[in-house]
Write a structure and sequence with these properties.
TT1751-like_sf; DUF302; 105 residues; 4-stranded antiparallel β-sheet; alpha+beta; 4 helices; DUF302 domain-containing protein
């Protein structure tokens, strides 16, 4: 699923009567939600409540010609459960993929 967050904020600005919701002057904000069925199954089978951490999400911010991708690590949600190992694996895979993007820091 892909959401154009900045467009949604701008659309709600007038409806909610909240002035300047984009005070940071971002030029683009996108949200991406995705799920890997293999990881979901592993989470479900190890600690069913931890399956809630899948789907995964990324938020992409653009400002002044710079793009920043934010990924909330799943281990933060599964600590001290039997799903810790799987959450660590998910985080490793996602972070490695993000670092493989040309120009990533």
């Amino acid at each position: 699923m892909h959401l154009d967050v900045l467009k949604r904020i701008e659309a709600k600005e007038k409806v909610l009567h909240i002035p300047d919701l984009n005070q940071g002057k971002f030029t683009d904000v996108q949200a991406f939600v995705f799920c890997n069925p293999m990881f979901f199954s592993q989470l479900l089978n190890s600690h069913w409540k931890s399956a809630a951490v899948c789907p995964l999400d990324l938020t992409v911010f653009a400002k002044n010609g710079t793009t920043t991708i934010v990924y909330p690590e799943r281990i933060a949600y599964t600590q001290k459960t039997s799903a810790d190992t799987i959450a660590n694996r998910i985080d490793s895979v996602v972070i490695a993929a993000l670092k493989s993007i040309p120009g990533a820091v």
